[in-house]
Amino acid sequence: MRAQVNLSRHTVLSDKSTQIEYLSGTDKDNTVDWEFFVSDGMNSGKWTTIGVPSCWELQGFGHYNYGQDDEDKRHQEHALYKHQFAVPKNWKNKDVKIVFEGVMTDAEVKINGKLAGEIHQGAFYEFKYTITDLLTYGANNLLEVKVNKVSSNETINFAERKADFWVFGGIYRPVYLQVSPKENINRVAIDAKADGEIIADVFMESKKGDQIKLALFDLKGNKLQDIQTKLIRKEKTMWRFSAKANDIKSWNPELPTLYSLQIELFDKNNELLHQVKQRIGFRTVEVLEGDGVYVNGVRIKFKGVNRHSFYPESGRTCSKELSIEHVKMMKDMNMNAVRMSHYPPDVHFLEVCDSLGLFVIDELCTWHSPHLDTKVGRKLVKELVVRDVNHPSILIWANGNETGWNKELDDDYAKWDIQNREVIHPWNIFRKTNTMHYPSFHIFAYDTYAKDKIYFPTEFLHGLYDGGHGAGLEDYWKMMWNIPIAAGGFLWDFADEAVVRTDKNGMLDTDGNHAADGIVGPYGEKEASYFTIKEVWSPIYIEDRYIRESFTGKFRVENRYHFTNLDQCKMIAQWVKFDGPNASVQCSILEESMVKLPHLEVGEKGSFTVELPRNWKNADVLNLKAVDQHGMEIFTWTYPIQTPKQFNESKINYTGSGALVTETKDEEIKVKAKGIEFLFSEKTGLLLEVKKGDQLIPFSNGPIILGHKDKIEKLTLTSLKDRVEISVVFEKTDKSPNWASHKEYSSDLIKWTVYPNGLLDLKVEIKGKKIVKDYKGITFSFPEQEVAGMKWFGDGPYRVWRNRMKGTKLQVWENDYNNTITGESGFVYPEFKGFFSSLYWAKVKGKNSNGFTVYCKSKHTFLRMLTPENPSGDPKGRLSPKFPDGDISFVKNIPGIGTKFQECDSMGPHGNSENYLGNDDEPIVIELTFEF
Q: Residue limits of the Glycoside hydrolase family 2 catalytic domain (predicted)?
């Protein structure tokens, strides 16, 4: 929404407090029109209007640039802004500052034709000018801002404009007036420890100030206590106090308790001069060398993600609503941390991290080398820390990114940070920490000269397209959790940065493979890894469990919270019965009960028991849904009770009368049953054609045994009263003896059975082999253009890879066909094409036919549905696993997927290309029933 009049938001506690008057809008959805002129590109060379705050490219001005564009494609337009605002007469005796929360990139500010101060350089930092003496009171005033998209400081361009993200121009964050009494508190810096101890620096602009009083409030405005203070340092413009709050609750991301600290400045006559309130959380952060990162005395593991401030239709201009949406999704994935890559975020994002509970790494914007020059770098470090110092969510400062660190700035953070938080160099071994990026799995052997450094990669498992994120996370997290000096890590990254191109008919553009790295799509569309992360990072860790006849209801569990006892959570057990593909109601709950979770302190292991109802063996699936102390779902685990064969016994009905007609002609076997005509090859036994009445069902050319080279020994056609059987036996070409039993390998077998009611059974036996790298299974043809959708009972709704199996649920799902290329095009999720695990039955819908239903009677079988289109930006093929021949397959093993930087084999055991498929003496059996 673009407001046509000035949006004003007043924050007035009393006439002795600070008033905020917005000159711009407040966010991407609430803007105010200012006069505007851009020098080059779209709609340039003329005065018009633009909504502020905004990135001008997204409003149809100037040029788009990605940070890695070649020099000859980099645009350097500048823009002029004008805005008139009224100043009341009663402000004449006030202190008035103008605050810019963010301008890209160099900003020259004038009030009534006079410079407000020096040109500000740096796109991601809040800056302000005192303009008291430049204003005309009781009249309109003119604000003029010249914004250069490219800085005159080349080191800022290397830090911010030549980075791996979109480059925008404009006044993209809000602008407001800050109006305070002449005698005022300019700012405060607070260190509030978990035990209630407070150290506060109060910076003031006052000649009359004589004493400071503190009081603690809850966030509803209720006064909790006055706090006695002790002055421990007094300088001309800064006083330092110590104090102690009683009976407080500490802040942590699992229970993020916040307070409001009121600071009042009085003169010597005890007259109030100025009053401010600062939201705080009581918590203690320690980075103990050779040990770990501690919060409130607890060693923590970061379950983190990198996040840019971004929205497709507004670029870097965001909103508090968007911040809430993003943080809620992170919390829903059971994350506890976020890294501000690669620049400070909007203030409201940090406020949401404080209130909803996330650990934060806050970062100065640099990008590789050369680094920021020291003079401008020191200004930006001050602006970063002064703005953000009081957020309890911030645990660590990052002095830039990936070799962009100016080491001369490392100690500057402590000058402005009363809490003296640790400074890191992301992608480097520095001081107490090792944050090297994109480690291969073997790095966790951790026997280097830096093995005593606290290790947490600030980027790992790069999420380009469908790779990374969830793929490999189970293996990595097992190591991160169990290595004492490992402190977790941060996935790259949260969302695909696809920008709306106003110069290209509104297309979504990720600049090829540069910005398609998200767990979610550009508008928050959830990809499969979202749910894998949710399960792997669940703070309730349940050991893998298989339900068999001897099941007692017992599950082993570990409390992987940092601050919460397990008995604060709830768990619901549901015993669920599912029906076949043609049922109108797919499931019913046989029994539901609460599970008593054990009293387990942080890190403890124990067990819980699910009460077994008398009819539990009649259920198909056990659901265990865990809910945290705030009522949010942690995860829902599903456990099959019936095997596919047991489940489908009651779903497949072989009864039914009718004649079976068999005809052999021109090397083809034709079998008719109840209006269905099957055509098989007499030479190979492959299904060639299926017709139902006059309708051709395009399911054919199978079962081709994948990787199979043996010749056919014989084909047998057997016509019986109640069925027709076609059996194909292959030669035993491999005569090498089994090392243990010295027996020959068995031969492969294909067996079709046609029943009078039109059902078609298939049994395939494939020679077993202990270790394989190629696919083991069978495949068929069904042209992609004929597929309309699929309904199935199995794991879903997302596809899986070998190294990304977690995050699914066993139930009935239904997806329409789509051709989404993850992170590149379509953005419709779940993706329709790929591998789906734990198949029980599937109903494939045809566009020009009724399709077919297949019942799977073999355990641990994957359904392959078509072949995903490979992304265009994957030159090394790490994100494009090879699929079997054909269109629809039933396989016993599937590939892993890699990342932009890694082959899946280097990402842990689950990504290894070798598969152990067991027994040389026994065949792999796939049994299916088809219904047309």
A: 290-505
Dihedral sign (CA 151, 154, 159, 165)? positive
Give Cα separations from 925 to 546, 721, 768, 846 (angstroms). 21, 26, 9, 28
**How far apart are alpha carbons 316 and 342 in whole angstroms?**
12
Rounded-to-integer distance, Cα 429 and Cα 45, Å: 49
Measured CA to CA in angstroms, residue 597 lies from 332, 559, 575, 807 at distances of 21, 10, 18, 22
Structural contact between residues 883 and 863, judged by C-beta atoms closer than 8 angstroms: no
Pairing, β 433-434 against β 454-455: parallel
Name the 3-class secondary structure at 842. strand
Secondary structure (3-state) at 380? helix
Residues 190, 178: Cα–Cα separation, whole Å:
21
Instruction: Write the CA distances from 631 to 299, 568, 570, 626, integer angstroms.
Output: 26, 11, 9, 9
Angstrom distances, CA of residue 22 to CA of 175, 348, 918: 6, 15, 69
pLDDT score for 733 = 61
Residue 890 pLDDT grade (very low, low, confident, very high; cuts 50, 70, 90): very high
34 residue type, one letter: W
Encode pLDDT of 549-606 as tens digits.
999 999 999 999 999 999 999 999 999 999 999 988 889 999 999 999 999 999 999 9
pLDDT tens per residue, range 821-871: 999 999 999 999 999 999 999 999 999 999 999 999 999 999 999 999 999
Instruction: Compute how many other C-beta atoms are within 10 angstroms of the C-beta atom of residue 465.
Output: 28
Confidence check: pLDDT of 489 > 60: yes
CB 763 within 8 A of CB 705: no
> CA gyration radius for the chain?
33
Phi then psi for 750, rounded to 5 degrees? -125, 130
What would the two tokens of residue 39 be? Answer: 């020098």
**Choice among 109-113, 182-186, 341-345, 920-924 with the minimum mean pLDDT:** 920-924
448: Cβ contacts below 8 Å, ≥ 6 apart: none
CB-CB contact of 810 with 798 (8 Å): no
Q: Which pLDDT belongs to residue 773?
A: 86
CA distance 794 to 796: 6
From CA 91, how far away is CA 133, in angstroms rounded?
Answer: 11
Mean pLDDT within 737-755: 69
Angle in degrees, CA 309, 315, 319, rounded to 5: 55
Is 5's pLDDT higher than 50? no
DSSP letter string, 403-444: T---GGGTTHHHHH-TT--EEE-TTSEETTEE--SS--GGGG
CA distance 424 to 436: 11
Strands 139-148 and 106-111: antiparallel
Whole-number Å distance between alpha carbons of 789 and 183: 70
Q: For residues 908 and 803, is the Cβ–Cβ distance under 8 A?
A: yes
Domains and CATH numbers, the chain: 2-181 (2.60.120.260), 184-280 (2.60.40.10), 286-438+450-468+480-532 (3.20.20.80), 540-637 (2.60.40), 660-931 (2.70.98.10)
The pair phi, psi for residue 526, each rounded to 5°, is -85, 125
Can you give 137-178 as a three-state secondary structure string?
CCEEEEEEEEEECCCCCHHHHHHHHCCCCEECCEECCCEEEE
Q: How many CB atoms lie within 10 A of CB 222?
A: 9
Q: How many helices (H) and strands (E) does the chain have?
A: 8, 68
- Residue 703: how many other CB atoms lie within 10 Å: 25
Tokens of 473: 């996370």
Angle at 778 between CA 776 and CA 779, to 5 degrees: 130
Measured on CA atoms in the order 542, 547, 551, 552, is the torsion positive or negative?
positive
Pairing between β-strand 302-307 and β-strand 488-491 as defined by DSSP bridges:
parallel
In whole angstroms, give the CA distance from residue 461 to residue 171: 34
In this structure, what DSSP letter does residue 830 have?
A: S
